[in-house]
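User: Hi! I have a protein structure encoded as tokens and I'd like to know what sequence might fold into it. I'm fairly new to this, so please keep things simple.
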């Protein structure tokens, strides 16, 4: 069985070291096998730009779990396959910074793939390789900058 974990995070500010939302889509043997989305209390401030981009405000995450509380729930999923993200260096760095800042030990290395890089190598005719551009080209529904929708679009582009 081949298992891939597509994920996307939204961040509250320009530091990109905390999550305000996470979406996870599990792909087993070429089929979407599960989806997960939650807001995340980042335990930090929000920039106006990020609020405008994502629609996520400090008020809507007040009762959401913070990353430490969420990690126990999502770690088994993250450990169960190869991680995939669109612009994976960004999402992987946010994940690594959250693990570091909450003093959580995980793996020294996590295998991952980047659908943005895949798009650059395979879809030369596109004007850019943003998730919304690739999704439009492939006919994949997308509510861009919603972590759940972004992770599903990322997963759909790989199957």
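Assistant: Happy to help. Inverse folding works backwards from shape to sequence: for each of the 159 positions I chose a residue that suits the local structure. Here it is:
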């Amino acid at each position: 069985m081949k298992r891939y974990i597509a994920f996307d995070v939204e961040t509250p500010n320009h530091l990109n070291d905390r999550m305000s939302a996470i979406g996870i889509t599990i792909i087993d043997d070429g089929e979407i096998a599960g989806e997960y989305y939650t807001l995340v209390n980042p335990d930090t401030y929000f920039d106006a730009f990020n609020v405008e981009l994502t629609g996520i405000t400090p008020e809507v995450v007040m009762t959401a779990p913070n990353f430490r509380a969420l990690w126990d729930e999502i770690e088994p999923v993250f450990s169960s396959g190869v991680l995939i993200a669109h612009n994976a260096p960004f999402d992987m760095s946010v994940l690594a910074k959250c693990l570091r800042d909450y003093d959580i030990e995980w793996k020294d290395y996590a295998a991952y793939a980047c659908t943005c890089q895949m798009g650059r190598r395979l879809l030369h005719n596109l004007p850019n390789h943003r998730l919304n551009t690739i999704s439009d080209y492939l006919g994949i529904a997308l509510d861009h900058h919603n972590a759940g929708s972004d992770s599903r679009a990322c997963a759909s582009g790989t199957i």
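A useful reference point when you look it over: The mean pLDDT is 96. Feel free to ask if any position seems puzzling.
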